Amino acid sequence: IVKPFSEIPGLWKNGVGNLYNFWKLDGFRNLHRIMLHNFNTFGPIYREKIGYYESVNIIIPEDAAILFKAEGHYPKRLKVEAWTLYRDYRNRKYGILLKNGEEWRSNRVILNKEVISPKMLGNFVPLLDEVGQDFVTRVNRKIERSGQNRWTSDLSQELFKYALESVSSVLYGERLGLMLDYIDPEAQHFIDCITLMFKTTSPMLYIPPRLLKQIGAKVWRDHMEAWDGIFNQADRCIQNIYRQLRQETGPSKKYPGVLASLLMLDKLSIEDIKASVTELMAGGVDTTSITLLWTLYELAKHPSLQEELRAEVAAARAAAQGDMLEMLNRIPLVKGALKETLRLHPVAVSLQRYITEDIIIQNYHIPAGTLVQLGLYAMGRDPKVFFRPEQYQPSRWLKTETHYFKSLGFGFGPRQCLGRRIAEAEMQIFLIHMLENFRVETQRHVDVQSTFELILVPDKPIILTLKPL
Ligand code: HEM
Ligand code: 2DC
């Protein structure tokens, strides 16, 4: 017989007491490890209340399937109050990330066509390919200058620039020029603001930002400044395209980018377009760059796997005769590597939904309206879900065995990552160019772990060496 909600194990009775323990455990940076620990203690389902937010946590793919079947027509994630408070305070519209209900749905339908529909890939790929080639040129210049026929560094800043250049090129149909030696300090400031914005968000998941704002806390002030910097830079880019569009005489044949397409389509208000394009630009930097950094790190640790991938890319290049769009259909192992990276190093520690109907998970009754979280990081490392989870093994994604609700790095369903197609193409193209040109090596074994800064990021710099082939 089904057990009641109140019998779900966990520490859910004392939110403030839990917040204190959480803080002692450095929980703001350890959320992923605490979740792992909780699953080990309580089993595959537990309830929890930290500060003001209460949830039920699950880990099994079959349970994830039940969760997503109960997400309703307007799937809703955990509300990140720091992000909505900023917009309320500055009188800015919510973009697609923060909208809910019918407004979310009507905006998302239109954005889907321009951003995530497979038809758009043909437009994005040439733009992304150009950025990938420029990255190779840049690395070659660094190698030359080193005078040692190699380049050793923490690539994260380079990857941030690659990611921002890529996403901007798709959004605006124009290059920012971040692969050059001298870059616009405003663009660098934008990158720094995104990192600061994420970092300052995590404590505010547990301590209400309204309160922190009232007492003038530094974390809230930093958060405001970070979003101000993000919006200022995005506004400049958007204004620029808007002006160009009004001066243009005839329609041109060239793909003009997501922003210009949305403006010409004239189905969303300018304010809605601005809000969502800003979120796309901000969401497109740390996510892909950190996933690529982890991938290079894993390839450096697994040289024979790296050679296997290189061979796959070479064969794809030959078969596709250099046509990049076609090449992307011929690199299953590269795609497996990216899935494997997101399994071990997901960007999002969890996926969450407020369920719209009662469900039964692990024989417990969960009422409609409950926030249910799938522990994505924990699932990726669970030996009951993945065979030898500690091993980085892209080929596990090639097997015909089902991957039922196991590949969830970009979320699921109509509320999944809007930038998914851009992110995937951008990362695949990056790896193709890197594998074709360089060998990636790492120093003596340095073990790098994840740390939670709203998204999961490496807890120490990852130093890699790139050598020409
Ligand atoms: C949402 C992951 C890159 C823009 C999400 C979600 C996840 C995610 C897990 C929540 C999905 C859900 O609740 O089901 C990732 C990963 C990325 C990535 C792993 C790269 C490796 C990007 C990029 C962009 C972007 C490049 C922009 C171009 C967004 C937006 C949403 C979102 C706008 C909110 C969509 C909505 O609420 O309707 N992403 N993301 N993401 N992502 Fe990404
Ligand atoms: C963080 O407990 C942990 O894709 C919380 O591109 C639950 C939670 C809620 C929303 C998640 C967030 C976590 C991680 C970062 C995500 C976010 C939704 C979208 C965002 C997953 C798991 C992200 C990185 C977007 C960010 C776009 C923004 C910069 C405009």
Structural notes for this entry:
The model has no long low-confidence stretch (mean pLDDT 95). With 469 residues, the chain is an alpha+beta fold. The longest helix is centred in the middle third of the chain and has 30 residues, at 218-247. Helix 6 (121-146) runs parallel beside helix 18 (420-437). The strands form 4 sheets. A 5-stranded mixed sheet has the order 1-2-3-8-5. The termini are far apart. The chain has helices at 15-24, 27-42, 61-69, 81-90, 101-115, 121-146, 156-172, 185-201, 209-214, 218-247, 258-265, 270-283, 286-301, 303-320, 324-327, 332-344, 376-380, 420-437, and strands spanning 10-11, 45-50, 53-58, 151-154, 350-354, 359-361, 364-366, 371-375, 438-442, 450-453, 455-458, 463-468. The chain is built from 18 helices and 12 strands. It binds protoporphyrin IX containing FE (HEM) and (3alpha,8alpha,22R)-cholest-5-ene-3,20,22-triol. (3alpha,8alpha,22R)-cholest-5-ene-3,20,22-triol (2DC) binds at residues 77-78, 80, 97, 205, 279, 282-283, 287, 347-350, 352, 417, 454-455. Protoporphyrin IX containing FE (HEM) binds at residues 77, 96-97, 108, 167, 279-280, 283-284, 287-288, 291, 342, 347-348, 351, 409-412, 415-419, 422-423.
Radius of gyration over alpha carbons?
Answer: 22 Å
Structural class: alpha+beta
Shape: globular
Strand order of the largest sheet: 1-2-3-8-5
Task: Please tell me the overall pLDDT.
Answer: 95
SSE series: EHHEEHHHHEHHHHHHHHHHEEEEHHEEEE
Characterize the biggest β-sheet. 5 strands, mixed
Helix content: 40-55%
Helical segment tally?
18
Question: Which blocks of ≥5 consecutive residues have pLDDT under 50?
Answer: none
